[in-house]
Specification:
Strand content: 5-15%
Helix content: 40-55%
CATH class of the largest domain: Mainly Alpha
Distance between the termini: 81 Å
Pfam families: PIP5K
CATH superfamily of the largest domain: Rhodopsin 7-helix transmembrane proteins
Shape: elongated
Keywords: ATP-binding, Kinase, Membrane, Nucleotide-binding, Signal, Transferase, Transmembrane, Transmembrane helix
Number of domains: 3
GO molecular function: 1-phosphatidylinositol-4-phosphate 5-kinase activity; ATP binding
Number of helices: 25
Largest sheet: 7 strands, antiparallel
CATH architecture of the largest domain: Up-down Bundle
Protein name: PIPK domain-containing protein
GO biological process, one term: phosphatidylinositol phosphate biosynthetic process
CATH topology of the largest domain: Rhopdopsin 7-helix transmembrane proteins
Number of strands: 16
Structural class: alpha+beta
Length: about 725
């Protein structure tokens, strides 16, 4: 490459292609007419633009057309590649039109003229789009690999908004600061000024660093074993080439821009104008070379092959890529990155379930083979004094010791286990995969006692049987936790739920664990109990907090009739649209809210002896949450069809139903004459939200938007929330 440039330097000097007279002085205060005379596109550059631009345009449009033709390529990150190609296509048009202008008029356009001003805006817009979407692609890979168990709300909108904000704002800023116009390359884009050469180099350096970091993170996140070998090689082969190609081209442009700028400012040598030609050639290489590399992009490779074969009237064939990817668990409309994410999710769920089951093995009296858990080992035990609750009274500490044989250290205890990827004999027979990681078990002694309380109805060891849960794992699609985007996994026997926790929620339960333990142990409560809290950690990749809770349904969701999430508020607490009729099948799938309950149910149709007990129970629970400063909890009411369930499972009798629950208040039969065999499943959920700045802002923002100071928003301080919950839920709905 360097030899070719040196040879071309001598050849151009011998032929007199470039002369000192063609160099202009950047610091001269020139008029538009003088600038147009001074800056000229060399004939060689014109021919390169006229010949290569259409070819480059065809390369980019072929990929663009494949995206328009095949809908599954429009999902992220396919849409990112689409916008990169579209930006390149606009640049090709810009270069071709510029070359045509020189050919027709034989002179440079006026920098402030309508042609150059319009052309420069398109050039800056498309150039910014190319850089922005390459960076967005790196961000997408990083975020999706890190957040396997959490939906980032509106991620595509956020990433596209970032790119388009840059694409729109930068041309506008350039326009209003008078920095767009005729450049030293003879094209209409950014005007040259002394700070630009270094800016180009910094931009290339930034892109190179973020790209190399993406490759490093991908290799860290994807396990280095036989199962993921093809995935790693496919991504590495494509992305290494793409990074190498784009960095070489952009570095060539940056160096050419820098040398051309210094020549304009200091050297004034005609021979150095060759770097303008090199820079223009590098620009044209961008859509050509990168488009060729994009043909191997795993997301669109199959579609591009199909399109080529249709062009040449040959039969479609399936891409070889997915044939070699082991454990292809996704449907045909999934792209390469969907395959990666889905496989990682399955393996992470397997790892979490295995870790929880190994921790819970002491909950059962059945004999457990030692080798069944030979790939989990103790790393260390520790206590975390950060969560020490200073408000705990001395007589509470005494009561812990005398009544429960516990100390405050038991509430702060953490046990850290290591999990390797050997797999047990059973796992190997199913060819399951555990991810090398560490699992932290928080307050194991405390949650063991809470599990013991419900041991007659729930066997955690059996519920988390890894083999028995494989059907649920394979059906698992991803996070589905409402607007919070939490991950939910239901065990095969419908007894338990695994749910992700935020770091904030983890902090809340840990610092309030002593009063929480007392309340659950000494009161009749509707609170859905927590049976364990864990953190799965993979170094330099991610950490996931999960909590195990009782599943309020206890039987398959197909027997669910209605689900209500009740808070006691009326603002934005209606799901069903007015004047729209919903059938039973649609209502089964929707989580309804307060106003929907009022319209459909009015109140719970339960026997009077349960009504008063449940009311007292809810009052005490609300007062407890007010005491420890929590709010935003909900009363979950699920109407379940036990009659149909018992008909389909003849071994189930009505007198067996209480065995599924630790309290008869958790499942109460309906006394409505039209609801034979219908039971209300009741639990308080989502109770780990503190009254913080975010909730305060949410409350006052909604009031301001609706111009109503008395608006009954869902977010209220803990005392007001408790009072409203008691008045509008405990004394109205119940």
């Amino acid at each position: 490459m360097i030899k070719a440039i040196i040879y071309f330097l001598f050849l151009s000097q011998a032929l007199g292609i470039y002369s000192d007279a063609d160099v202009f002085y950047c610091y001269e205060d020139l008029t538009d007419d003088e600038l147009s005379e001074k800056i000229k596109m060399q004939p060689l550059d014109q021919y390169i633009f006229l010949i290569v631009s259409p070819l480059a345009f065809m390369c980019t449009m072929f990929i663009t057309y494949s995206f328009l033709k095949y809908p599954n390529t429009r999902k992220m990150p396919g849409d990112i590649v689409f916008f990169i190609s579209l930006s390149d296509a606009i640049l090709c048009i810009h270069w071709f039109v510029t070359a045509c202008y020189y050919t027709v008029y034989g002179e440079s356009p006026l920098s402030s003229g309508p042609f150059c001003q319009t052309n420069s805006m398109f050039s800056i817009f498309a150039g910014t789009g190319e850089v922005s979407y390459n960076v967005v692609f790196c961000i997408y890979i990083r975020l999706t690999l890190k957040n396997q168990f959490k939906v980032i709300p509106k991620l595509p909108i956020i990433l596209h908004s970032l790119a388009w904000t840059a694409m729109i704002s930068i041309p506008i800023i350039a326009k209003f600061t008078h920095n767009n116009g005729l450049s030293i390359f003879g094209t209409c884009s950014f005007k040259y000024h002394p700070g630009f050469p270094l800016a180009g180099i910094m931009l290339v350096l930034f892109y190179t660093l973020i790209s190399l970091y993406t490759i490093w993170y991908f290799n860290k996140a994807i396990p280095d074993d036989e199962k993921y070998k093809e995935i790693r090689e496919t991504f590495g082969k494509y992305y290494y080439r793409y990074i190498k190609g784009s960095c070489l081209i952009w570095t060539s442009q940056a160096i050419s821009f820098t040398l051309a700028g210094f020549n304009c400012s200091y050297f004034h040598k005609g021979i150095l104008l060759i770097f303008i030609t090199i820079g223009n050639s590098a620009k044209l290489c961008t859509p050509v070379v990168l488009s060729i590399l994009r043909y191997n992009e795993p997301t669109i490779k199959d579609q591009v092959k199909r399109l080529w074969r249709k062009v040449w009237r040959r039969d479609n064939v399936q891409s070889e890529l997915c044939k070699h990817i082991k454990y292809q668990l996704v449907h045909d409309d999934s792209n390469f990155y969907d395959t990666i994410h889905q496989n990682l999710k399955f393996d992470q769920v397997n790892t979490i379930i295995f870790g929880i089951r190994s921790v819970c093995k002491k909950d059962t009296s059945s004999e457990t083979s030692v080798c069944e858990f030979d790939q989990i080992y103790l790393v260390r035990r520790q206590t975390d004094s950060r969560y020490c609750n200073d408000s705990i009274l001395s007589n509470d500490i005494t009561r812990l010791k005398s009544d429960y044989n516990l100390t405050t250290d038991d509430f702060l205890e953490e046990i850290i286990y290591g999990i390797d990827s050997k797999g047990t004999n059973n796992e190997k027979s199913l060819d399951l995969k555990l991810l090398p990681s560490t699992m932290t078990v928080y307050s194991p002694t405390i949650f063991h006692k809470i599990r013991e309380k419900d041991a007659k109805m729930i066997n955690h060891f059996k519920s988390f049987d890894l083999i028995a849960n494989q059907d649920q794992i394979k059906q698992f699609k991803g996070p589905d936790g409402g607007k919070g985007g939490a991950f939910f996994f239901f065990t095969h026997d419908n007894k338990l739920i695994i749910k992700t926790l935020s770091d904030q929620e983890l902090m809340v339960i840990r610092k309030n664990l002593i009063p929480y333990f007392f309340h659950l142990s000494e009161n009749e409560t509707a609170i859905s109990p927590i049976y364990g809290i864990y953190k799965l950690f993979r170094q330099n990749v991610y950490s996931i907090n999960v909590v195990v809770m009782r599943n309020a349904m206890q039987i398959p969701s197909m027997y669910r009739i209605r689900t209500y999430d009740i808070k006691g508020s009326e603002h934005s607490r209606q799901v069903l649209k007015k004047n729209v009729k919903y059938n039973d099948a649609e209502l089964r799938k929707i989580t309804l809210k307060d106003i929907d309950f009022q319209n459909l149910e009015q109140q719970l149709h339960i026997p009077q002896q349960y009504r008063e007990r449940l009311r007292v129970c809810l009052v005490h629970d609300a007062q407890f949450f007010s005491k420890i400063k929590l709010m935003d909890y909900s009363l979950l009411i699920i109407k379940m069809d036990w009659y149909t369930y018992s008909q389909n499972n003849h071994h189930i009798k009505e007198e067996d139903i209480p065995n599924y629950f630790s309290s008869d208040l958790q499942c109460i039969h309906s006394i409505n004459a039209t609801e034979n065999g219908i039971y209300y499943h009741i639990a308080i959920i989502d109770y780990l939200q503190e009254w913080n700045a975010q909730k305060i802002i949410e409350k006052h923002t909604k009031k301001a938007i609706h111009v109503n100071i008395a608006l009954d928003t869902s977010a209220q301080n803990p005392d007001d929330y408790s009072k409203r919950f008691i008045e509008k839920v405990a004394y109205v709905i119940i």
